[in-house]
């Protein structure tokens, strides 16, 4: 069993996974779940983290055991697998990244009190700055910076959660009644929460590619035990942070009939106020910087991963069936993603919610399919028998697939019927 010193040294893909997940499902959905529905939403959060665990774990397991990325594994199972994943990736690429930059721009405006600058202009600056960081610093800088950002965020959230629990819940307004969970609005929110907790299933390929890059940087291959311990540490941190955000939302907003705004700038201010209400105004700048750093790191990890996945897919779609790994390819991918997503952001800003809803729908409905594709990879002849998932983990995988399939079918029924 690797010791703590070895674990810290091996931190990488699991850490990046935690950073990426925190800014999407956690900061928005977990907080909103606690604020609107109370502590009971801890059940679907924990359930989703448990049932979706194998899908992400297989991204590490397959890469270590087969010395291939998940995407190359899809191609090995048949072109249909690769084409299907390419479609999912295409739909989400030009919506989710734009949405992440919008929220981060809102936090920037809130932090530096610059209401005179538009969200789109701040987003443009962020696109340019992050693109430069990724092209120059690449994976090594990304990993190093996130060790500090995620550590600071975890401590800030832990302190805030403890103070919130000590102070106790806010007093509900007179006549407050808990919103129904099992009506149409409640079910749709529950489906969104489960679908994006801890994040979308297709992100399993992101972990796979980060693992490959980690090998290149360190020039050292990890054992399966070491790699899984590192990933499990990041995954556990992700689950704990989701619970922290839920508790903060529950203790500070539940029963007050306060709704978290859909406007990026207003939402940013509301989130920061959640923390400072219980710590004090003296902590405003500390919390605001932490919240901005959280979303900034999420933008970096998502931008980096989507660029890598895009190159991997394009490489295997070519006649030579080889990944595009040159430094210039990565630089071009980062720049093109920034340019296209900025155009999406400016052209469809008024309909950004609809664009994200489309990406969410495709991602959620296809989640059990991606889960099945990942299972086929780790159970294939690419993986030695002693490195394949245990029987209980296989059962958990099937349980997760049936769970997600049920919610996907129910989601489709509610949307179309």
Automatic annotation (TrEMBL):
<dbReference type="GO" id="GO:0016020">
    <property type="term" value="C:membrane"/>
</dbReference>
<protein>
    <submittedName>
        <fullName>Mn2+/Fe2+ NRAMP family transporter</fullName>
    </submittedName>
</protein>
<feature type="transmembrane region" description="Helical">
    <location>
        <begin position="355"/>
        <end position="375"/>
    </location>
</feature>
<feature type="transmembrane region" description="Helical">
    <location>
        <begin position="233"/>
        <end position="253"/>
    </location>
</feature>
<feature type="transmembrane region" description="Helical">
    <location>
        <begin position="186"/>
        <end position="212"/>
    </location>
</feature>
<feature type="transmembrane region" description="Helical">
    <location>
        <begin position="81"/>
        <end position="109"/>
    </location>
</feature>
<dbReference type="GO" id="GO:0046873">
    <property type="term" value="F:metal ion transmembrane transporter activity"/>
</dbReference>
<feature type="transmembrane region" description="Helical">
    <location>
        <begin position="148"/>
        <end position="166"/>
    </location>
</feature>
<feature type="transmembrane region" description="Helical">
    <location>
        <begin position="395"/>
        <end position="416"/>
    </location>
</feature>
<dbReference type="InterPro" id="IPR001046">
    <property type="entry name" value="NRAMP_fam"/>
</dbReference>
<feature type="transmembrane region" description="Helical">
    <location>
        <begin position="330"/>
        <end position="349"/>
    </location>
</feature>
<keyword id="KW-0812">Transmembrane</keyword>
<dbReference type="Pfam" id="PF01566">
    <property type="entry name" value="Nramp"/>
</dbReference>
<feature type="transmembrane region" description="Helical">
    <location>
        <begin position="282"/>
        <end position="309"/>
    </location>
</feature>
<feature type="transmembrane region" description="Helical">
    <location>
        <begin position="115"/>
        <end position="136"/>
    </location>
</feature>
<keyword id="KW-1133">Transmembrane helix</keyword>
<feature type="transmembrane region" description="Helical">
    <location>
        <begin position="40"/>
        <end position="60"/>
    </location>
</feature>
<keyword id="KW-0472">Membrane</keyword>
């Amino acid at each position: 069993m690797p010791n703590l010193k070895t674990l810290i040294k091996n931190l990488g893909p699991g850490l990046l996974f935690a950073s990426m997940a925190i800014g999407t499902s956690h900061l928005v959905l977990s907080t909103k779940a606690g604020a609107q529905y109370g502590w009971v939403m801890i059940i679907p959060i924990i359930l989703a983290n448990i049932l979706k665990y194998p899908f992400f774990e297989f991204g590490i397991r397959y890469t270590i055991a087969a010395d291939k990325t998940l995407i190359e594994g899809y191609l090995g199972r048949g072109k249909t697998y690769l084409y299907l994943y390419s479609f999912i990736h295409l739909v989400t690429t030009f919506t989710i990244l734009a949405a992440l930059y919008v929220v981060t721009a809102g936090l920037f405006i809130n932090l530096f009190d610059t209401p005179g600058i538009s969200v789109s202009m701040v987003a443009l600056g962020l696109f340019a700055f992050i693109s430069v960081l990724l092209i120059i610093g690449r994976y090594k800088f990304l990993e190093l910076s996130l060790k500090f950002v995620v550590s600071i965020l975890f401590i800030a959230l832990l302190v805030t959660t403890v103070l919130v629990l000590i102070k106790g819940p806010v007093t509900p307004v007179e006549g407050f009644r808990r919103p129904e969970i099992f009506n149409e609005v409640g079910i749709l929110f529950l489906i969104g929460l489960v679908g994006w907790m801890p994040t979308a299933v297709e992100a399993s390929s992101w972990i796979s590619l980060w693992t490959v890059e980690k090998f290149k940087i360190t020039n050292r291959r990890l054992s399966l035990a070491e790699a899984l311990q590192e990933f499990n540490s990041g995954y556990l941190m992700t689950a704990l942070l989701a619970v922290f955000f839920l508790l903060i939302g529950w203790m500070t907003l539940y029963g007050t009939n306060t709704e978290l705004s859909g406007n990026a700038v207003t939402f940013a201010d509301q989130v920061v106020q959640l923390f400072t209400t219980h710590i004090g105004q003296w902590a405003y700048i500390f919390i605001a910087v932490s919240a901005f750093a959280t979303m900034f790191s999420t933008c970096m990890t998502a931008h980096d991963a989507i660029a890598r996945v895009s190159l991997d897919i394009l490489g295997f779609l070519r006649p030579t069936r080889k990944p595009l790994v040159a430094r210039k390819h990565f630089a071009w991918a980062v720049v093109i993603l920034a340019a296209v997503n900025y155009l999406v952001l400016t052209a469809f800003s008024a309909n950004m919610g609809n664009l994200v809803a489309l990406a969410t729908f495709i991602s959620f409905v296809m989640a059990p399919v991606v889960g099945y594709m990942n299972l086929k990879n780790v159970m294939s002849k690419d993986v030695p028998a002693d490195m394949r998932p245990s029987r209980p983990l296989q059962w958990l995988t099937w349980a997760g697939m049936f769970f997600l399939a049920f919610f996907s079918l129910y989601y489709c029924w509610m949307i179309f019927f």
